[in-house]
User: Fold this.
Amino acid sequence: MSRGVWYRYRDLLPLTDATPLISLGEGDTPLVRSRYLAVEVGCKELYYKLEGCNPTGSFKDRGMVVAVAKALESGSTAIICASTGNTSASAAAYGAHSGLRTIVLVPRGSVATGKLAQAIAHGAQVLTVDGNFDQALELVRALSATYPITLVNSLNPHRLQGQKTAAFEIVDDLGGAPDYLFIPVGNAGNITAYWMGFCQYHELGKSPNRPAMMGFQAAGAAPLVRGAPISEPQTIATAIRIGKPANWQGAVAARDESGGAIDAVTDEEILAAYKLMASREGIFCEPASAACVAGLLKCARGGVDFRSKRVVCVITGTGLKEPELAVRHAGVPLQNVSRDLGEVERALRLAVPLFRER
Ligand code: F0G
Assistant:
């Protein structure tokens, strides 16, 4: 039976005897070694933490399971969040699993279809807001302050507690922290949670080192890089289309305390990395996830020497949430053929039939 994030790290999570240990099998995600990009960027060791392998297809499940369990423990009967899509999918799934009323507010017109489908399928009440994520977040903050509804955005500290377990897993898998952690940044909860996890493991003597935290935002939605909120954030990576990150201070602290950086990558760089990940590494990820890979490529181009370095990129979500984007950018039209073997051979440009049954 799957016991999720609770099992391995129960002593480091905010558990009491009254916390219900719900689970949909979150956590324990693969750390996959790069075969292609490691060579391209001249990196000694490069790994991808595949958070798209979580039950709802993103890293959000690690934190949601803890936030929902604590909501149940406190007697709450309803949860609410604003979301660019993944948080709402996760909240809806754990809400359904736990019999909680789930309310999600998403920016109208900029949420991947798969994410919306998840929220709807799990029975959440979905409101599309005429506004962006930051405005939706203001609304749910106001609602959760007025009504007995638990806010499960990353402002809820239990979310970050659950999400820090990914840092523990990386250290446990590698026998230490990497030199660099590359991670996409939107509302800035995840970079805050990872840094918390690496610091906690270091203090406990479970990791000899801590990584430099390398956060990447989309160029059209890079308030942390600019140093001021952005009122109309824009990017193809809708998951990180955020102009006023709720965990601003946490991200800045992670960057400064770790000796890392927070930088921006353009939509073109994000799309190029998204395609590279799928076509060269065999990893179909979200555009938002590809932002950190684009960041790694940018650093390598900018002269950062990774030759003796161990690097981890956090692949935060699966590309399956937005299949139409992949099809649109594939650049190769689908080719239809009849059932005639000759036609199929010609379509495949096979000069000589490779194999023919007698
Ligand atoms: N990658 C993906 C796939 C995401 O869905 C998000 C955030 C991030 C990266 C950035 O993480 O916000 O902790 O800095 N998605 C949120 C949502 C905002 O509503 O699903 P962050």
